[in-house]
Amino acid sequence: MNSLAPGSSARPANRLGREKSPYLLQHQFNPVDWHAWHEEAFAQARRENKPIFLSVGYSTCHWCHVMERESFEDPAVGSFLNQHFVSIKVDREERPDVDKIYMTFVQATTGQGGWPLSVFLTPDLKPFFGGTYFPPEDRHGRPGFLALLRQVQEVWLGRREDVLKSASRLHVQLRHWTAQNTRGEGDVFNPALLQRAAARLQESYDPLHGGFGGAPKFPQPGHPQLLLRHALRCRDVEASTTVIHTCDAMAAGGIHDQLGGGFARYSVDEAWRVPHFEKMLYDNAQLAQLYQDAFLFTGAARHAAVARGILDYVLRDMTSPAGGFYSAEDADSEGHEGKFYCWTRVELAELLTPDEFRAATRYFGVTAEGNFVDHSHPQPLSGQNVLYVAESSLSELELSTLTSARTRMLEARSRRVRPHRDDKVLASWNGLMLGAMARAGVVLGEERYRLAAVANAQFIRTRLWDEASRSLYHRWRDGERDSVQLLEGYAAMLDGLVTLYETTLEPAGLEWCLALAESMITRFHDPEQGGFWQSGVEASGLILRVKEDYDGAEPSGNSLATLALLRLGKITGRADFTEAAERTLRLFGGRIEQAPHAVPCLLHALDFALQEPFRVVIAGDSTHPATRDLIAAAHGCYQPNRVILGTLGPVEPFAATLPKGNSPCVYLCTGTECRPPTSDPAEVKRWLEPEGLGG
């Protein structure tokens, strides 16, 4: 993998050297004459009547590195691409709208998807053939990449009209594949839909290892969070047991960084032991929320500890000095996947005292043979061990010894060559982590998390938010923002800012929420059919607009927007916010009915919409210690269908009329009725605490 540093290669930089994306900069010294996703590339393809080779990936993608090493650094491949194609590189994290279109095409035509995404387009950007990773030579049923390029070029020269006609037909079909006007047959506001969704999730539950489905196994926090909501709504102990088992199993696995905190993207095995080592901000933001839910539900300190570990990892390794949250860390270091994280018995024997060695090797399951081999590397390392909890029944003395061993191991690991860090700041992923940090400040009682959330909001406001045009841009890196605006950025940031407001009750923060929500509706909402477009009308180079609803590794923009607007509607009394959210739920009613496992976060919003939420109205100076105690109490139990608001600023009219008094107090309201005010945090928790559940 090429360094990002200029001059790291004898070959001069190509066009990608002008870009800010770490992924594109990784390819700046390839012999391929890469373009970014710009009109310049499209115009060249039209002018020279050449097909486009589109390669989509991201900077911490292991198989993207493999394909670069094997093919894009090969002068023969570069020469052939430069002669016969216009080659375009896209960072899927910067342009998820571009990725969505062509990933949908590849998944529909091949039955699989992933990154690197490799697609061949006509000069007018219509796809006609695609796949994912291609090896340098024919292997495992996949054609060699250079041989494939020759085949595509021959077809383009010999049967161009057929290719163009096929691409036009596929474009029409692509519109059908991406159309999401899937209203259900019945009323979407039906609790039975939530019960059926929970039942289907339970059917895929792995009772041995936790989680859902088999290998490879992804955390998918939206699924256990949906089951926990169901457990609360229906007093379903089996569902809550599923969630807690899953949380405990993931925390004990190698997917969880046992030394430094945080989680890898997924596990290649069903037992969570061997991860794909890259760490993504969006995963860790959602998992921090899940473990806070589990802590509130059970009261178990172990769940709070996992959440703290995630957030401390982000503050330590993934936060810029100005408060922006970085995007990801690579799976690879020094050319080997997992080398930064793995250990051999010999290394540990040299590092630890004999007692520490015995405790650590027993607890973490370290063997001479190891449990991980990087088969993608031509010369894999031997004896590598991913740390996981193999034996938890240690004595108190052994646990104390293990603590000192962990400290020594983490310090030694910090001296290793770290994996590449993608240091771009994305509005969407920052919104997710902003919400997790803000909530943790009160749920876990850690002021540093609240301060990190406040700093992040200020970072986004000064660098990615344009006050004059009320525009939120998507990416900041190296002193510059991009020119892209995306639904997921607006929706995730709105969701995070609503949570931040609920922890601070600052009127200025609520005013920004209103401006962001209004701008999101103006730019992305479909007033005819409902739902939100992924891109605005001003987006260039897109052959269609998409309404994304799939809650995969990240919640979709529609899911985030729907829940955020429902919450904001209850806080402010704005009926237009609630209406836009409810129309979105109706639009996707068919997906909710037919494939609830694909839209769990949209079902979180439906769960919220089906119940008149508690409104915890806190009157008093938001900076007063007694007010802070009341805010913490309102957040101090598992009650996802409640909102917290003050009495100042653009709050709903009824809250604004409540008497302020001389000391902070809480009014717990439903509809237009409120309980008598209280200044007792314990009483606030008693009002909100669910009965009959818990760990």
Which helices and strands occur, and which strands form pairs?
Layout: H1 22-26, H2 39-48, E1 52-57, H3 62-72, H4 75-84, E2 86-91, H5 96-110, E3 117-121, E4 127-131, H6 145-158, H7 160-178, H8 191-203, H9 222-234, H10 237-252, E5 266-267, E6 275-276, E7 279-280, H11 281-298, H12 301-317, E8 328-329, E9 332-333, E10 336-337, H13 345-351, H14 354-364, H15 396-413, E11 421-422, E12 425-426, H16 427-443, H17 447-463, E13 465-466, E14 471-472, E15 475-477, E16 480-481, H18 487-504, H19 507-524, H20 557-572, H21 575-587, H22 589-594, H23 600-609, E17 614-619, H24 625-634, E18 642-645, H25 653-656, E19 665-670, E20 673-674, H26 681-688
Parallel strand pairs: 1-2, 17-18
Antiparallel strand pairs: 1-3, 3-4, 5-6, 7-8, 8-11, 9-10, 12-15, 13-14, 15-16, 17-19, 19-20
Helix pairs in contact: 4-6, 5-7, 8-9, 9-10, 9-11, 9-23, 11-12, 11-16, 13-14, 14-15, 16-17, 16-18, 18-19, 18-20, 20-21, 20-23, 24-26
Can you describe this structure?
The chain has 695 residues and is of the alpha+beta class. The chain has 4 domains: 15-178, Glutaredoxin (3-Layer(aba) Sandwich), CATH 3.40.30; 203-331 and 423-539 and 546-609, Glycosyltransferase (Alpha/alpha barrel); 332-418, no CATH class; 614-688, Glutaredoxin. 48% of the residues lie in helices and 9% in strands. The strands form 7 sheets. The chain has a 4-stranded mixed β-sheet, with helices on both faces. It has a 4-stranded mixed β-sheet with strand order 18-17-19-20, with helices on both faces. Helix 13 runs antiparallel to helix 14 (354-364). The chain is globular and about 80 Å long. The protein starts with 21 loop residues before the first helix and ends in a 7-residue tail after the last helix. The model is unreliable at 1-8 (pLDDT under 50).
